[in-house]
Write a structure and sequence with these properties.
CATH topology: Four Helix Bundle (Hemerythrin (Met), subunit A)
Number of domains: 1
Structural class: mainly alpha
Largest sheet: 2 strands, antiparallel
Shape: globular
Radius of gyration: 16 Å
CATH superfamily: dinb family like domain
Number of helices: 6
CATH architecture: Up-down Bundle
Helix content: 40-55%
Number of strands: 2
Length: 202
């Protein structure tokens, strides 16, 4: 499995759907303050988190992931789509560096230092899920190929489901029930705590 290639596809799709969000017009309408599937987070806050994660993983790929500053959400998010696009370009550049899969990544949010290949897998599943979060917020279709969804599901199935490691203060919400016959995207979302409505998976 070429995890760097699959991650790139997921990140580029996340960039595409974030780019569909409308800024406020003269009437005050816009998408950035809409509620997202991440409880308590507007689309603006979700995209700030996504940008911070891109920067943090880029730093981890370059050996400086243990420095908290690299993981902080940007303070100025006046142009969320542009901030996110720049952060995405940074992480894709970092992951494209020769030998990246063999490096050690320090990931403070998970309290782990892991080899590059599984670390990039963590980033991959994060951006499949967050791309869906954005698409669901905006009511648009997520476009990811089967190999990306299969790879994300393989990672999601390995995330510990112990209730003591899920919920507030942890990286993932408690898993929700996976119905029989669920597709790869739905199973991934439910394993990581989302509760997608059927129309959000079309």
């Amino acid at each position: 499995m070429d995890v760097v290639r699959l991650d790139r596809i997921a990140v580029e799709e996340a960039v595409r759907v974030v780019g569909l969000a409308r800024d406020e017009d003269e009437a005050g309408a816009g998408d950035w303050e809409r509620d997202s599937p991440c409880a308590g987070w507007s689309l603006r806050r979700l995209v700030a988190h996504m940008a911070a994660q891109h920067r943090g993983f880029a730093a981890a790929a370059r050996g400086v992931g243990g420095e908290p500053a690299h993981w902080r959400e940007p303070e100025d998010l006046g142009a969320p789509a542009e901030v996110h696009r720049a952060a995405a370009a940074d992480v894709l550049d970092a992951f494209a560096e020769p030998g990246v899969e063999g490096r050690e990544f320090t990931l403070p949010e998970l309290g782990l230092t892991v080899p590059g290949r599984p670390a990039i897998g963590f980033h991959l599943v994060d951006y499949v899920v967050h791309a869906w979060d954005v698409a669901a917020t905006l009511g648009v279709r997520l476009e990811l190929p089967d190999d990306v969804l299969a790879a994300a599901l393989a990672v999601a199935r390995r995330v510990p489901a112990d209730p003591g490691s899920r919920g507030d203060g942890f990286a993932f919400a408690p898993a929700s029930l996976v119905p029989e016959g669920a597709g790869a995207l739905e199973e991934t979302l439910r394993l990581l705590g989302r509760k997608p409505e059927p129309q959000m998976l079309l």
